[in-house]
Design a protein that fits this description.
This protein is mainly alpha-helical. It has helices at 3-33, 36-62, 77-105, 114-141, 144-168, 176-204, 210-224, 256-274; strands spanning 231-238, 241-250, 277-284. The protein has 2 domains: 3-204, Up-down Bundle (Alpha-lytic protease prodomain-like); 210-284, Cation efflux protein, cytoplasmic domain (Alpha-Beta Plaits, 2-Layer Sandwich), CATH 3.30.70. Strands 1-2-3 form a 3-stranded mixed beta sheet. The chain is elongated, with a radius of gyration of 25 Å. It starts with a helix and ends in a 5-residue tail after the last strand.
Amino acid sequence: MDQRTRYGYLEGIISIVVNTLLFVIKYWAGIISGSIALIADAWHTLSDTISSVVLLFGIRLSSRKPDKEHPFGHRRWEQVTAILIGFILGIIAWSFLVASYERFMAREVAHFGTIAIVVTIISVVVKEGLAQLAFYYARKTSNVAIRADGWHHRSDALSSVVLLIGLMFRHQFWWIDSVAGAIIALMLFYTTFDIIRDAISNLLGEEPGEELIREITRIANETAGSDLQPHHFHIHNYGTHRELTFHIRVHPASDVKTAHCLATSVETSLKEQLHITSTIHIEPEGVPH
């Protein structure tokens, strides 16, 4: 088992255990206090458990070796998993928004107590801790699914902060619980959009960033010892494996073998320095593509 897979499993298992315990505590406190916002927060926490289960399945699928049908491996399961986690968040957010609206229209008042405050504070600390752990593992592995799970934890921590604000003003405003629940839902919708947008962008393929293009250009020109005028960049991400295509310009008098050897040496340098597999199209200088 490689480091990427090991960290993914570890984050998922820790998340499932901790979130399940938090859900039980927060739901119990929500029932006692009659707070729709605290109960919504509890279900948000349980949705983290569900997303972590999805994460474990995604990591298992993405860790499979390349095969005849999938020569670039199965790492894109990480993006698919991130999209699934995003949809789970969206469903939970919609249910929170509806519940908050119905409670507001019915003018229902929550009766917060010390238990609700203590449980909410514990939730903020624990959930931010889980988020930091997930972000750390995501940085170590560049796994977008673990990052999505981390944002799920972070959104839960932020929703608990909003809930705490509601607790502070519970005596002044009867509607604070309903409004806090709605704010939590809107935060979840934003997180859903952010997670799904990034995952889909990776699946569709992206133009390399300016910094990466500058680095590729530098390596190509240093390897060739001349200005190859690299252009027309395209990159496809497959988790840890990246496929890059671009064009270079060579002297019109260069023979096929010389141009081929030049392109191969650039491809080798990019593989060694950036861990990117590249395919280079050769163009004669002065001849439009």
